[in-house]
From TrEMBL:
Gene3D superfamilies: Met repressor-like. It comes from Paenibacillus hexagrammi. The lineage of its organism: Bacteria, Bacillati, Bacillota, Bacilli, Bacillales. It comes from the Bacteria. InterPro entries: Arc_rbn_hlx_hlx. This is Addiction module antitoxin, RelB/DinJ family.
């Protein structure tokens, strides 16, 4: 595994860290994603064009914690909140994965297209679910109400065995979450 050292303006880094925190990741994860996309797409993974950025009032985002330092910032990414209806659609897609009739990458794209949720968020939710039912630790967190809904569905629709694996997954995730409190953006 290679290590990269970069120099970046402190204000830029602080702003990026807070935005990435609201997305459930840190700078290292974001840079890994970026470099993987460069590799996969054999080029820069986004359009490099001048445009007028959207203005987003960060006080609208209840789950990023303290927002007093933000005011209104230019930002061009869509920030659609994940709704209970989206989580229900995710669950239905996940049932296809469990049944062996869907693959997570394809399902996350379908969920994004049908619900308006970002593909990245759909992918994260589906991976968290897969880790839960397999008893594997997670490095991501979900909003508590979403996790509660999904755990209830695991228990009632997938059975006690999968539910116990999900409990084990949560227990196995705790050490990582303790070491990386930035992942608690919800």
């Amino acid at each position: 595994m290679a290590n990269i050292e970069i120099n970046i303006d402190d204000d830029t880094l602080l702003e990026a860290e807070k935005i990435l925190l609201s997305l459930g990741m840190n700078v290292e994860i974001a840079l890994n994603i970026f470099l993987r996309r460069v590799s996969l797409e054999k080029g820069f993974p986004m359009t490099m064009a001048a445009s007028t950025p959207n203005l987003i009032d960060f006080s609208d985002f209840e789950d990023i914690g303290e927002t007093s330092v933000y005011e209104t910032k230019p930002f061009s990414r869509s920030n659609i909140k994940i709704t209970p209806a989206m989580v229900e659609d995710l669950w239905r897609a996940f049932l296809r994965y469990v049944a062996g009739t869907g693959e997570i990458n394809r399902l996350s794209t379908e969920v994004a297209e049908t619900t308006g949720m970002s593909r990245g968020s759909a992918f994260i939710y589906l991976m968290v679910l897969a880790n839960l039912v397999n008893g594997e630790p997670n490095t991501r967190v979900l909003k508590y109400k979403d996790l509660e809904f999904l755990m209830g569905n695991i228990k009632t629709q997938l059975g006690e065995s999968k539910y116990q694996k999900a409990i084990l997954s949560l227990k196995r995730s705790i050490p990582y979450w303790r070491e990386n409190p930035w992942c608690f953006c919800r």
